[in-house]
What does this fold into?
Amino acid sequence: MTKDIRAAITGSGVFTPSQVITNDELVVAFNAYADRQNALHADEIAAGTYAPVPHSSADFIKSASGIEQRFVLDKSGVLDPDRMYPRLSARADDDPGQMAEMAVHACTDALAMAGIDAGQIDAVICAASNHERAYPAVAIEIQALLGTGGFAFDMNVACSSATFGIQAAADMIRAGSIRRAIVVNPEICSAHLEWRDRDCHFIFGDVCTAVVLERDDLATGPRFTVDSMRCATQFSNNIRNNDGFLRRTRDQMDDRRDMQFVQNGRRVFKEVLPMVSAHIADHLADEGLNADDLKRLWLHQANKSMNDFIGRKVLGRTPTAEEQPNILQDYANTSSAGSIIAFAKHSADLISGERGLICSFGAGYSVGSVVVTRKGG
Ligand code: CO8
It folds into this structure.
């Protein structure tokens, strides 16, 4: 491997589903579900053997998280108090899968921005917090639908999948094994969120992001050189989903709560904040960078207070909305795609030589940071 070869992000794309659920709509549906449950279990509630389901509140959601709405693939199923999860049509094996379909939209936009054809891509990494099947890899289906060359594979590091994917692609470019890659993050969070749990029913939305990475010396247009990357993990059960292929063998095919997203939000908040703040500080120090060297922070989008805290720790002062853009209010938490939405929508104004940091964090625990510098444009 030679240090002279560098990777650059030359294109980005965001596919946003057309359906929106506001906090108010969500709370109306949740409260209708709660009322039905409570009526159904009235006798047990009176006997003290069943805990009533409390109402949710749009004011709580906004103040606790900063989220105002979320995009989803299907709102009718989510808002149906008798269902409370999306209704997506079954697809024949020969038809494009749900994740691959979203991915093609985001990748097409990213390729157009990079000004290259799909045939010039050597690797497709589908990096997301859940994949709709075990195999064949969703990435290989995306490769076929786009018509890219080379190889493709899936990876999953939950909320940090995008930055870990960028590190994998950029390292392969630096090592000389590929020239160009797409890292794509189709996140259908609505399908593995438990919409019947008041503590978390408001957190997630659906989206797909993609970035094109190229060998810097092959790129001609405006881009962001990937200067350095750092990934870290530390095992924690505080964000967990127990669904998996061993369910049948354990006779556990029932609709158990832990087959969807489960978290201890308070503990995640307390434990992840210091981990991420220290991770970014160490990364910058090892690169000889100061906070003043960063024009922008594109942070993971889980919780506004979390981002405000990290921004203050990294910069040593309260970042402006321009320095640390939030997209959480519109998209909610979109797992691995959040920091890339922020990057895609809030990076075009940087001028040549200006630097920024992409950082994602979440389940695992996991944290990934990428320092980039604007070149050209
Ligand atoms: N409406 C009204 N009241 C509520 C509601 C609600 N919806 N929910 C909770 N409350 C109540 C609680 O019961 C509690 O009441 P009391 O004080 O009487 O006990 C009070 O409000 C406070 O509750 P919390 O302590 O739970 O509230 P917090 O201030 O901690 O806020 C958050 C909750 C917003 C969840 C916050 O803890 C948080 O954001 N934590 C960090 C979460 C995080 O970053 N997680 C990362 C997970 S994402 C990831 O890694 C990817 C996983 C894969 C994707 C999965 C897709 C589905």
Observations:
- The longest helix spans residues 265-286.
- The longest strand covers residues 223-233.
